[in-house]
Amino acid sequence: MGQTLTVTPVRLQIPPKRNATTLTVTNSGATATGIQVRVYDWTQSDGSDQLTTTDAIVVSPPLATIAPGASQVIRLVLRRSPERKEDAYRVLLDQIPPPAEQGTVRIMLRISLPVFANPTTPTVSHVQFHLERSADQIFLVASNGGTAHDTIRDLDLWTEGGKKIKTTFSGSQYMLAGATRRWPVSAQDTTQPLELLRLSANALTSAITQQVHLVSAP
């Protein structure tokens, strides 16, 4: 029987001047389980998430065994404060596999959690959208020129005539500070002029309504 792990909170924030936060891992399974916790620097490049090893955050303890029904508090300590803009990290929590037993299959959990560290100066996101043509493909492009991340969800594109335009955008998407992301527009919708569209979406703090213009690819 596999173990069941729950983690709270699912999104971590390190406020300025505190330089530390905690998460709690609970084992609701019937047997003890081991965990390993690591932190990675999180950036977004070419539209994808990039994780690189970092010593900016110290994890204590990085390894633990949690008894059935028990919880383990994990402390994250920031070693260097961010300057001017928010720094982003990812916590990866891996369940350590127990010794193999004949005739059984165990599925180990991996949980990935965002961590945001704030500088002492105020930060704000500033996400803008435009359309970009590259060869025969049109992309919806989002750029966050602000100093904090944002989360974009429920995104829709419409023509001025009210026709809905399909993109590969789905679910909820993080936009880190300074990042740019691109989503292809459905090929069947590129046969008509798309120089100007209407966009609606929801962000962390407000709804977004914008006109998006077609620009030439850099």
List keywords for this structure.
single chain, 218 residues, mainly beta, Immunoglobulin-like, 2 domains, 6-stranded mixed beta sheet, 0% helix
Portion in helices? under 10%
Number of helices: 0
Protein structure class: mainly beta
Q: Tally of extended strands?
A: 18
Beta-strand level of the residues, as a percent range? over 45%
Mean pLDDT figure: 90
**At the first level of CATH, what is the class of the largest domain?**
Mainly Beta
Question: What series of H and E elements makes up the topology?
Answer: EEEEEEEEEEEEEEEEEE
Domain count: 2
CATH topology of the largest domain: Immunoglobulin-like
- Shape descriptor reads globular
Largest sheet: 8 strands, mixed
What is the CATH H-level superfamily of the largest domain? Immunoglobulins
Which architecture name of the largest domain does CATH use?
A: Sandwich
Radius of gyration of CA atoms, rounded to a whole number: 21 Å
